[in-house]
Amino acid sequence: MKCAKRNISASDKARHIIQQHGGVIRTAKAIQAGIHPRTLYQLRDEGLVEQLSRGVYRLSDQKSVSDPDLVIVATRIPQAVICLTSALFFHEMTTQIPHSVSIAIPKGSNTPRIDYPPISVHRFSKEAQQSGVTVHQIDNVPVKIFNPEKTLADCFKFRNKIGMDVVLEAIKFYKIRKDAKPAEILGYAKICRVEKQIRPYLESII
Hints:
By secondary structure, the protein is of the alpha+beta class. 45% of the residues lie in helices and 18% in strands.
């Protein structure tokens, strides 16, 4: 006698799919994975998923999101790399609290449309966009962030925008790190074309 197959509801199937995506999913990705929009909205109305931003949902029974802004940006704008003050904040190299998420996108890219969180868009050359990128798993979502050395070089390049005081504070924090790699900073500074300008500030750790 054959065992009857258990009928899996559309709701259960949808939750399983979202779980496979780390508990966070975009509407487009959900539909592509086989979740009907009606099912997604039903889950939202029943409180089984919550809307982090327009088009971004997470399972409600997941533990609290540690950094929802970065998770939303990484989900909505996969090509973006967290940079400048947002990267400094992530690496604990600033006392500044970012009022927007700073992202780097390739030159020539269209400006991303996102209602929340506020973003600050910076366009990088191909080499600068691809150098020093690290991927951090934040609440099971891969988030691309420039490493500390590349971030310092970028901040020096954009010092007129973010303020030289922010850059000097970041260098001060970096100098006390046990894993400081000043030679790597100079390498990235060369890519950013600020090697001569930044070198005097690194003399004490070179």
